[in-house]
Amino acid sequence: MFCCSPVRFVCSGLSLTVEEHIYFYARLKGRSKKEVDIEIDQMIQDVGLPHKRKELAKNLSGELRVVVLTMIAIFFEVL
Prior knowledge:
Oligomer: single chain
Distance between the termini: 23 Å
Largest sheet: none
Strand content: under 5%
Mean pLDDT: 78
């Protein structure tokens, strides 16, 4: 199975948006597209980042990258 560290992935400079990073890991976990779309909408609103949704993760500050990694961890239920 392919495995990629979320920390390395989010911080690597790949051209994925905040939304795309979260979507990738949520789908990797096996969640349905519909379920993921609903949860991403809610989660991005809850953490106050709707204005960063389409922002490339490589352009985020270190603090905001931690927020994205936390959202990924929530999808993986590791917190």
